[in-house]
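Structural prep section.
Before we set up the soaks we want a predicted structure of the protein with nicotinamide-adenine-dinucleotide in place, mainly to decide which crystallisation condition to try first. Input record follows.
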Amino acid sequence: MASDRNHYELNRHTDASQNGTNGVNGVNGVTPRGRLAGKNAVITGGAGGIGLETTILFLREGASVLMCDISEPALKRAIAIAKKAAPHMTGKVETIKCDVSKESDVQAAVEHLDAWGGLDVMFNNAGIMHSDDADAIDTPEKIWDLTQNINVKGVWYGSKHAVLALRRHNKKVASIINTASMVALVGSATPQLAYTASKGAVLAMTRELAIVHAREGYRFNALCPAPLNTPLLQDWLGDDQEKRHRREVHFPMGRFGEAIEQAQAVLWLASDESSFVNGTDFVVDGGLTKAYVTPEGPAPAPPNNLGR
Ligand SMILES: NC(=O)c1ccc[n+]([C@@H]2O[C@H](COP(=O)([O-])OP(=O)(O)OC[C@H]3O[C@@H](n4cnc5c(N)ncnc54)[C@H](O)[C@@H]3O)[C@@H](O)[C@H]2O)c1
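Run finished without errors. Recording the tokens verbatim:
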């Protein structure tokens, strides 16, 4: 068994060196390895942070990607970055303006892939954390509604139209990944009640969808990131050192997470490698939700993001 595997690995290395790539692990980090070869993916919130990093990884692994975002200028910038970061892509990449809180927008995005052979992977990732979000007393109702409309309804619409498309194309295997958050699992004394409630809803909704559609071959998993070094959080924290310290002291690894670290998890969940992983609260947090007293000393270096 072991020698068969070695033989297989050796052949893969040989094939890779013959076709000019850098081996099975894509040593230069750019060559396609095909973990998503032939799959068509919709990524919402694709123009920034986790969505852009995921777009790049998906393209490098042979997928075709439709980047969806509410911001057209951001999409224009992001697709140029994605093409540059995935120069050997074998699939296609396109953009579409899409406000996930509008069902017709989400439907149009998913149906755009009908001409590509139909959707295989849906990453419902777009979300907001509004600066006026606060505690039970001070959160304005309009911020509550806006947050639920984007963060919860957006994921519902994405899941709904993904299932409809998968059935339309008679797909037997599919992966839907919904971005929740660590705050769906642990309480925070620095409240953003509307956001927290929305992410709890994403977690519960994803779990139920996973069970409902399990025998159709459609897997649903929720991604639970820790606080990240992306504009969503970093713009909100700004230069406020006290606000930063309140969070940083809880990080076992001594740093915020990077978008690429979430994207790597999404890639695995999207691929057939995770075929028996369904309904999980997939936590990517550097150990934060498992920590009591955290270590002291310098933080290990983070990986580099691909899109900046
Ligand atoms: N950054 C964090 O610390 C953190 C932690 C946990 C969970 N998350 C979640 O991860 C997801 C992605 O966050 P990020 O950090 O990459 O954020 P980001 O702000 O870098 O990117 C989010 C993208 O979503 C887009 N967007 C906003 N509203 C939209 C709408 N209505 N329709 C379509 N697109 C819309 C934005 O234009 C932006 O490009 C969000 O759901 C967020 O709640 C983030």
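Observations: Residues 39-290 form a domain with the Rossmann fold fold (CATH 3.40.50.720).
Flagged for discussion at group meeting.
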